[in-house]
Amino acid sequence: MKMILPIILLFTVYFCIAQEAEPEKRIADFQNKWLKTAEESLQNNEIRNAYVAFSFVSIMDSLSEKGNIAISKADSLRPILRTKLIPKLIGTWKLKSTGSNWGMSEIDKDSKKDKILIISAETLSFYEVNIRTNKRHLIRSERLKFNNIQSDFPSFSEFIYSDNQIWSYSLNNDDTILHMTNTGELNRNNSRTLIVCGNSELIYERIK
Predict the structure, then answer these.
(1) What secondary structure does DSSP assign to 2-30, as a single string?
(2) Over its length of 208 residues, how does the chain's per-residue pLDDT go in tens digits?
(3) In 3D, which of 205, 208, 204, 201 has the Cα closest to residue 98?
(4) DSSP code of 108?
(5) For residues 112 and 68, what is the distance between their CA atoms, to the nearest angstrom?
(6) CB 106 within 8 Å of CB 97
(7) Which of 48, 122, 138, 205 is 20 to 30 A from 27 via CA?
(8) How far is 28 from 26, CA to CA, in rounded Å?
(9) Which residue pairs, CB below 8 angstroms and at least 24 apart, start in 101-105?
(10) What is the longest distance spanned by two Cα atoms in the chain?
(11) H/E run at residue 205
(12) Three-state secondary-structure class, residue 90
């Protein structure tokens, strides 16, 4: 459901602007508001909030002067956020629950195997581990490849898998819970799809 709220917000904004007698002025006002928010966030060293705010400015009108400024600012902040993200992801994670943004289910505690994810600076390695013998079986390995094709919903933490599926990674405040959401697919023409409802989701807990 977390993807649905920003979608409703953006559609509401678009609809309200479309009803205005002077939509260009409304867009400019919206951009000014979010540019101010972005600059204030930068001053407070809230880089993630600044990135989101700049992204919203560009989404409203990417061809305007303010939109171009915002694109440049967001592009400069994205690598910084990613550089900070990778060390937080590195470690060993155990699958805790699966489902979608409609609801999650806990992994069966009586299962004889654990689903383990080991993240290094370059790869994602998915394993099944026999709980009794502790024998590990590699299911698949993925190269850490960031998605650089932006959608209408700003994200700096999406990865593209070898099957072209795009997954968003997010951490809780103390970096002990990893939330993975399937947000779309990479197309052959270097565009992407966007899943906004019924997204597959996985939740891992850090064990090392």
Answers:
(1) TTHHHHHHHHHHHHHHHHSSSHHHHHHHH
(2) 444 344 445 545 554 544 454 678 888 888 999 999 999 999 999 999 999 999 989 988 889 999 999 999 999 999 999 999 999 999 999 999 999 988 999 998 888 999 999 999 999 999 999 999 999 999 999 999 999 998 878 899 999 999 999 999 999 999 999 999 999 999 988 899 999 889 999 999 999 9
(3) 201
(4) P
(5) 54
(6) yes
(7) 48
(8) 5
(9) 101/1, 101/2, 101/3, 101/4, 101/181, 101/197, 101/198, 101/199, 101/201, 102/1, 102/198, 104/201, 104/203
(10) 70
(11) strand 200-206
(12) coil
Given a contact cutoff of 8 angstroms between Cβ atoms, the answer to whether 91 and 107 are in contact is: no
**Which amino acid would we find at residue 112?**
K
Which residue shows structure tokens 């939330």? 179
Q: Tokens 């966030």, residue?
A: 41
**pTM of the entire predicted model:** 0.86
The four Cα atoms 8, 195, 171, 49 give a dihedral, to 10 degrees, of -40
* Token duo for residue 9: 């917000």
